[in-house]
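Honest question from a wet-lab person: if I give you the sequences of every part of a complex, can you actually get the arrangement of the whole thing, not just the pieces? Trying it with mine:
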Amino acid sequence: MSVLAADVRHRAPLARLTVVELRKAVDTRAGFWLLLTIALLTVLVLVLLVATGSDWSAQDAMALALAPSSFLLPVVGILLVTSEFSQRTALTTFTLVPSRSRVAAAKFLAALALAAVTTVICVVGAALAVAVGGGDGSITAGLVGEAFAFSLLNIAMGFGFGILLLNSALAIVLSFTVPIAWSILTEAIRGLHGVRDWLDTGNTWAHLVDGGDVQWERIAASAALWILVPVGLGLLRLLRTDVK
Amino acid sequence: MRGVIEVEQLTKRYGAHTAVDDVAFRCEPGTVTGFLGPNGAGKSTTMRMLCGLTPPTSGTATIDGRRYADIPNPAREVGVLLDASAQHPGRTGREVLTLAAMTIGLDRERVPELLGRVGLDAKAAKRRVGGYSLGMRQRLGIALALLGEPRMLVLDEPANGLDPEGIYWMRELLRDFAGRGGTVLLSSHLLHEVEAVADRLVIIRQGAIIAEGTAAELLAGSGTVVRGLEPDALRAALDGAGLRWREHRDGALHVEAEPEAVGRAAAASGAVLVELRGAERGRLEELFLQLTTDPATDRQAR
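Yes, you can. This is the full assembly:
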């Protein structure tokens, strides 16, 4: 027992669990390629912008850089949770760490960390594109902050779908279709325009990248519906579920 | 530090179906407990409840008096293998153990040594688990259970998929583990897998425990198998001593008495014996079948 660290009888610190979850996100082919695809697509769209675009601004470059990750980050967030159930590794994970809420917290932090990394790539890429391609204006601190907020919200929403549904395919499909259906519904029905303005992420969060009017109270309201509610309900489900 | 696993009045219902019905047993340090029953009898559900994965409907399962979920770093106290197939097929054997070592705060340096200990060589360690045979997955699962150097082991059907050499290897490993004071609970639906290694047997059928005890206790009064050089002389000796017997097809006699009584009867009459043993093996199998098969449900299942 001499080789063992002194703290082995204590529960795992959250930071350590988060590192483990980050490793799990990249140590399989699917996870690795998903993240690499985000990075490659980001670079690709920026290269195309510089090569073929004309009369574009730093804001445009930033929005374009964020486009691939806005689609794929929710999937990363989903798989962080659901792969444990589709591959049945939850059996091992929760045997090693019986506190499911701590595992969920570690996964959430890992999701935020991954979103932060991809956003750094987006920001650096957009800045390079502006410098090389001569876009109008510059990547301001405001743009960078909004980019991070957008990515973190996106992956958190994916995490919410994942923890609520605990099923990869179902969560991925619904995470794409439900927000779109909601957008269409609240747009089409005049009486729901108030709802749209506050609770449609295509209206609230989207302004973080499309140059629209960023209204943080509306962003927070949408986050409550699309992140807090599913994560809360999902956590309750995860704590009670029969892990087989 | 003790190492007692205790299950008390544990019940799990899924709707109208009772998967585990008022199950209670206790596993002591230095012993191997065989949890025996046919498939679907409730063994896995009981073990999942013990490890905090399945919430029980009622009752408790404790490890040294604490619920599993209340143990800060359980892998350091209880090594668990519930389903060897429940691993991500895209991870290598070494990666699976590395993740576990990181999770429980152990030095990763131990991983290669541990893989060797369970018979997975460097080449196998680098392969993805998806390409493993069930036997290799069981070995990886055993390595995972042993990783935290626990005092207790909870293993669900660990012999599944192992070849005879692998079963022998595991038997030695578990005997050695218990010999050094460890507590082992292992389940199986095959009697011959556990009877050679278990000190105590807990037999479960349709969610309820139907027999429990040491092999000797379960077999008390199971009789003796004896074979004489001259069968007529032996039969006469047994009749003379008032022992009841019946003849097997192969010519051996099954006597309803302990081996000592049979030996004394033979010695007293001068009959030469060529074989004398307790009728345990066959008897235990018979007992297991008797205890676990219910003619009514058997018919229903078909």
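Two things worth pointing out. Chain A is about 75% helix and 0% strand. The interface with chain B takes residues 1, 3-5, 7-12, 16-17, 19-20, 23-24, 27-30, 83, 87-89, 91-99, 240, 242-244 of chain A (CB under 8 Å).
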